[in-house]
Design brief:
Two copies of one chain form a homodimer. By secondary structure, chain A is α/β, with parallel strands linked by helices. The first copy, chain A, is built from 14 helices and twelve strands. Chains A, B: This is LacI family transcriptional regulator.
Chain lengths: ~350, ~350
């Protein structure tokens, strides 16, 4: 392994000059700095962040921890990551995406104890999340995107699922729909206690009941084919349904295809409203999907700012923020069959 | 900043016991190790990877370097990242995603000299890519996914765009199509020298010319709306076109919607074949898209294996591999209007 002395020898300068060139502690001419840089490159010498990290206990690197990369970084997650990376950069930090595999607790433990990062943003939080228990017991600042069942005292920002479901039902009720089904994420995500799946279902059941409407909920794997199958079964067993609230992007595309191919007009006979989605994803559908857009960019910005504040001021107040999805009314929602059109609340 | 001595004091053990517990150099009882772990957690002491990295010059972390996170990690890139992360894990390494902003060269330079990573996988390679010039001059092992205009001596794996275009044209020619247009990525990506955009266009122009067919190429921004606009203009000015080869997922959805809404049947009057895509993306379309699937998983695995081999054996032979996309014939390609159906070559 090359040492700083090797670099100094190759560059034809003293070791302290190398150190000054790296740390900026004393001025060094641009030409000398360039010679040092070339020598470092040739020798593969890589000292700074490690050494600086040891000396200052700061690396200016934040990790975005997320399991289940298989689910992808489409729509929402993508806006989220983009905004998070930008926010980190504005604060002179770098955000890295840290995928974890089956042993997510072990990998989180390793990450925290490696000392590579100043703080963590945790995605895909479950109601009962062992990663959060682990992080509670360490000194590394973190913020959750999502929240556990009892997030008291934890810093988090999340989607306001109750308000989101309220917005969806207001939009559809305003259009005269009385038989509204929810097409949600998979049974597996419910069983795993994935926050959005549990919270949206609970809000949907509560709010349809308050409105005196039946609460029809279907779970669906995260694929277009699964969406086709679930929609086919739903309309066979419940032909009275005139509106679908969906939260499952890939499945929504399959469901719309199945409804149209099954001879039902969208939105003439069936309205479809996709929540926790985005206008970009909606534009891929034909007819263009009415969506309620997840506040990905806001959550990314809030999450990173919260962590950086906690890195810099250990005792800063804890962020807790809920933001609802925003309605983008497009071509897949319309008046319920046999009703006269109202102006739905929430339409711009 | 907490020191190893602070940890030792809090845990009630000697500093060398802390060191043994961390390094495994001498056996330490499970109970002692647990006391050390708890003390480290309480004090926020984070020594190992940094210290180990300095001592061994190995961190077992690989970075996947990619600019332009805005473009997302849909279809292809996602399979790629998943396979790359899995492969790293199988080798006892961790893959982090390292997004870069506008100053991609500066950020790459910083990453290499921070000493945080053992090696790099570089995505979104341009024909003339200053990041590659930088990396050529350093000792950090890397592999390109994609390749520059003159990749002699560089380790890379990439899509075989010539064979991919040949497969697409064989499929469509076999169905009797003689007026085939290419709907590609944006002018901006062409101007930036983005490899796939340049190489697919060149192969398309060469191979249509060899077959005595006109070469109609349209560039299109990466959105469904842009796809609609470009398709509308294309069929207004070139109503003789009966087949589209597309390489631009979001735009393809818009183009199909525009063609159908414009009164042309797909595939009765216009066939659409999306290359460098995936069956998962194809399933979101209605009718289901015929795609040529990018070898994302293979490239992810090859890229990481190549870097790890170079990290472990500095003088290992350089990997250079090209893999074509695979045809998945679905519902958007069919016989050209007025021709009798042949069995298209390449159909499973």
């Amino acid at each position: 392994m090359a040492t700083m002395n090797d670099v100094a020898r190759l560059a034809g300068v003293s070791a302290s000059t190398v150190s000054y060139a790296l740390t900026g502690v004393r001025p060094v001419s641009e030409a000398t700095r360039e010679r040092v840089r070339v020598a470092m490159d040739q020798l593969g010498y890589r000292p700074n962040a490690l050494a600086r990290g040891l000396a200052s206990n700061r690396t200016r690197i934040l990790a975005l921890l997320f399991p289940a990369i298989e689910r992808g970084l489409g729509g929402t997650a993508l806006e989220f990551v983009t905004a998070a990376a930008e926010t980190a950069r504005e604060h002179g930090c770098h955000l890295v995406l840290w995928p974890t595999g089956d042993d997510e607790v072990g990998e989180t433990h390793e990450l925290v104890h490696q000392g590579l990062v100043d703080g963590l943003v945790v995605m895909e939080v479950k109601l009962d999340d062992p990663r959060v228990d682990l992080l509670r017991s360490t000194a590394t600042p973190f913020t959750l995107i999502g929240r556990t069942a009892r997030p008291d005292g934890l810093p988090y920002c999340d989607i306001d699922f109750e308000l989101t479901v309220r917005g969806a039902l207001d939009h559809l009720s305003g259009l005269g729909h009385e038989h509204i089904a929810l097409l949600s994420h998979s049974e597996a995500s419910l069983a795993a206690g994935y926050g959005p799946t549990v919270r949206v279902q609970k809000a949907f059941e509560q709010q349809t009941s308050e409105r005196g409407l039946p609460a029809l909920v279907r779970h669906c794997d995260e694929s277009a084919d699964a969406g086709r199958a679930v929609a086919a079964d739903l309309f066979r067993t419940h032909p009275e349904v005139t509106a679908l609230v969906t939260m499952n992007d890939d499945a929504t595309f399959g469901a719309v295809a199945e409804i149209v191919e099954g001879g039902r007009d969208v939105p003439g006979e069936v309205s479809v409203l996709s929540v926790v989605s985005s206008p970009r994803v909606g534009a891929l559908s034909h007819p263009r999907l009415t969506t309620m857009a997840a506040p990905g960019a806001e959550l990314g910005r809030l999450g990173v700012e919260s962590v950086i504040t906690r890195v810099e001021q250990g005792d800063s107040p804890v962020v807790r923020e809920l933001i609802p999805c925003r309605l983008d009314a497009q071509a897949t929602t319309g008046p319920a069959p046999g009703t006269h059109a109202h102006t739905p609340p929430g339409t711009p």
